Amino acid sequence: MQRSFIAKNPSVLIFLAILALFTLGVTLLSEGAGSGFISTSFVKTLGKTLCLCLVAVAMDLIWGFAGILSLGHFAFFGLGGYAIGMWLMYERTRLIVVDSLSQSEIPATATEISDAIGNQIFGVVGSSEFPLIWGFADSLFLQLTMVLVIPGLLALVFGWLAFRSRVAGVYLSILTQAMTLALALYLFQNDSGLRGNNGLSGLQNLPGVTASQDDVSLWFFWASALALALGYVLAAWIVSGKFGSVIRGIRDNEARVRFLGYSVEAYKLAIFTLTACIAAIAGALYYPQAGIINPAEIAPIASIYLAVWVAIGGRGRLYGAVIGAALVSLLSTWFTGGQAPDIPLGFATIKWVDWWLVLLGLSFVCVTLFAPKGMGGLVDLWTQRRTPERHGADLGPDAGSLQEQEASK
Q1: Which SS3 state, helix, strand or coil, does residue 201 take?
Q2: Disulfide-capable partner of 211 in 75, 215, 271, 297 (CB 3.0 to 4.6 Å)?
Q3: CA neighbor of 251 nearest in space, from 320, 315, 295, 179
Q4: Is there a contact between 119 and 231 (Cβ–Cβ < 8 Å)?
Q5: Would the pLDDT of 405 be above 80?
Q6: Predicted structure pTM score
Q7: Which is nearest to 70 in space by CA: 378, 303, 348, 398?
Q8: Separation of alpha carbons 345 and 338, rounded Å
Q9: In this model, does residue 220 exceed pLDDT 90?
Q10: pLDDT, tens only, 165-189
């Protein structure tokens, strides 16, 4: 009998229940709810952490399940942030300009208003004209569409060129990193149309909304939690069906999957584009909570960090990706925010602000060598999950590959 999606994935209900309880708890303890036990700034930190968990789920889909180590998915994350940031900055500036010009005795023309908005936004890079890419910045609906369209098209074109040439392994990782570096270097230029190194700022202010930051931070926290819940369910549904079986087969033995008649390139392109869109949605929710986005956010090192999070959490386990991203994100905030106490050694003092990246790198090495299942492996032990009895030869080279008997069921 065909088992239902929930029966095959009981961890999904557990994850959703934990996320719901966490969201409710943070809401009740926040300043926006009146208790004030959790500050507004920490609510924003938690909201950003949920967004990082979502992009980690996307990374786990492409790397943990499909076996494609992409070092460019944070570029899609940043593009999603830029897309929504353009509308936030334009609309906020427009309201300020209209309010200022309305005090004049002579009504301002549409051209004068447009020039004033352009001067306010692009004056920092010595310009006052709107670049072509800002053509839809005055429409929230179109910019929300761009959150998916721009990263999706970039992933589709890049993936099509790479996969049709059958670039794989470390060479594909290098190509994705080169794509990210090229995009970051382009955005650093003042004539890129996105204010160069200055980036887009003031994104935490919702245009036309008079609510306090206490309330706004909660709204984005709820949206981030909802996006993570939907993204997790979508990812679990994908990997539990035929599509998931095929991409795991590609990960384990691409030649055999190709021999069976599957279009390997089409499956790779589909999962690459889908995860790029998920990453873009996460970025669109992240940067309004961060308040600013600049090209440094798209630097290749950010995508490497993303791979480290998934590895620490345990790739090939969706909940592992969430655990890894949440753990590293919160620890990073604690260590780099000066909250971790310095350790005096007499001859020297360990300052965690300086040593955090070293600690993160050592953690990645230790997990790779001694705990390849990551933090997710500890969850397996805690829940006393046992590996099913298996018979027959492996159908793939990796540990945990599909077995002959399982394939016949």
Answers
A1: strand
A2: 215
A3: 315
A4: no
A5: no
A6: 0.87
A7: 303
A8: 18
A9: yes
A10: 988 888 999 999 999 999 999 999 8
Pair of tokens at residue 32: 């926006």
CA 183 from centre of chain: 17
Residue of 102, 63, 78 whose CA lies nearest to 285? 78
Strands (DSSP E) found in 143-299: 200-201, 292-293
Say how far apart CA 169 and CA 133 lie, in whole Å.
34
Q: Residue type for 270, please?
A: A
Per-residue pLDDT tens over the stretch 312-330: 888 888 998 999 999 888 8
For helices 374-382 and 300-313, give the axis angle rounded to 10 degrees: 20
Q: How would you class 59 by CB atoms within 10 Å of its CB: exposed for 0-12, middle for 13-18, buried for 19 or more?
A: buried
Taking the C-alpha atoms of residue 402 and residue 396, their distance in angstroms, rounded to an integer, is: 7
205, HSE (Cβ side, Cα atoms, 13 Å): 13
Tokens 């830029």, located at residue: 82
Taking residue 212's Cβ as centre, other Cβ atoms within 10 Å add up to 12
91 band by pLDDT with thresholds 50, 70 and 90: very high
